Amino acid sequence: MLQEFKNHIKSHFSFLEDSNILIAISGGIDSVVLAHLAHQLKLNFSLCHCNFQLRDEESDEDETFVKALGKQLNVEVFTTSFETEKYAEKHKLSIQVAARELRYHWFYQLIEEGAYNYVLTAHNSNDNLETFIINLTRGTGLEGLTGIPPINDKTARPLLKFSRDQIQLFAIKNNISWREDRSNANIKYVRNKVRHKIIPVLKEINPHILESFQKTLEYLNESQSIVHDKVQEVSSSLLAVENDMITMSIPQLNKLANKKAYLYQILYPYGFTEWNDVMDLVSAQSGKKVFSKTHRLLKDREKLILTQIDNKTTTKSSYLIKSGVQKISTPIHLTLSETNLKETENQHSITVNKDLLKFPLKVRKWGYGDYICPIGMKGSKKLSQLFKDRKLSLIDKEKVWLLTDAEDNIIWVIGMRQDRRFVGSENTKNLLKITQKS
User: Fold this and answer.
1) Neighbouring-strand partners of residue 299
2) Both ends of the chain: CA-CA distance in Å?
3) pLDDT value at residue 186
4) What pLDDT shows up at residue 345?
5) Can you give the residue range of the structural domain that contains 414?
């Protein structure tokens, strides 16, 4: 196996030969063998081990074993502990998903903080088949049937080509010790049930199931490549990138023979799963939305607009300015300063008669009943009409903030139009300059 692994690295993972590597190691046979193989190939690596504190003293013994292995191989060992059950409960996740989130976050943190290029995990071809079956039983698109990716961002999986039997044979022949995780025998976990109940039956039907499955994966990945190329071709006429959002033309979408399939391929990477709701959005009225955990899809007239959800954005709708000279940074950056110079209104700055202002001022979101008395116009104008004239999308409207006085009269549609009621005359001495910092 050593020579086969060496050839595999040269053919498909040659970038590892000149990289600083982390090997994710549990103490189990797969990751221990991966560490020994990397050591024999003289790769530059360190070990990183997570103690999930799920098996009492056994978890601590795993950590002790990994530290001893690091000394044996003369490599650095990083360890960390997680309160996995508390994390899973807090975030309403299964233990397996919680452990995955915790460990990959830590792996990538080590990469960012240290001089490491990649983290290697010890997934093998059996893991790949198990994942395929799990995805198949839960329902998935083509991407869920194309297997665990050998390389994904900063994660590489050089053992995917090898079976669990090959790995075990290598360990036995080379007198390699490893730790057995007793929970791997517990069939209450879906993966273990597939491993111990379903895979043996498949091997009875076809003793070469792993080899057959590998060919199937190759065919599926080739098909996925064709689908990807076609989606890219269609996307060029269907999608447009505007600032921090992606827009999708509904008229162009409706021309496609299978628009649901295209929507799936385009939106799946953004975490959407409720495909009937996504399809209903195409014919819904403007303003309707569908959410994934990370993104929002909004219907706006003849467009679908995709934006990322900013979890850091405050949910407050108004902010007070209690004095005449100060700076505020939330929700936007505004500077208020006294001045003797009356300046012409522009997009980022206005000058007002401070004597006409009633404090506290307020920065707030706009509403459909709001109106402004624009400079250079007689009478008033509803903000909804102002936005319509400017052809603002629903996303653009959501970003609009107003500066009002204590009686809720609009002083400034920030970054857009100033109200004439607060403009000073040529003889006004007590002027206040209000500037928006982009």
Assistant:
1) 304
2) 59
3) 78
4) 64
5) 318-437
**Residue 196 half-sphere exposure toward CB, CA atoms < 13 A:** 11
Kindly report the CATH number assigned to the domain that includes residue 236: 3.30.465.60
The amino acid present at 389, given as its one-letter code, is D
pLDDT in tens, 319-342: 788 776 678 887 888 989 888 877
Number of domains in the chain: 3
Query: In the structure encoding, which two tokens stand for residue 52, read together?
Result: 């999930």
Do 187 and 233 belong together in one domain?
Answer: no
Global confidence as pTM: 0.67
Per the domain annotation, does 210 fall within a domain? Answer: no
Which residues in the chain come in under a pLDDT of 50?
A: 313-314
Cα 258 from Cα 414, distance rounded (Å) = 43
Contacts of 89 (CB under 8 A, 6+ apart): none
The CATH number that applies at residue 425 is: 3.50.40.10
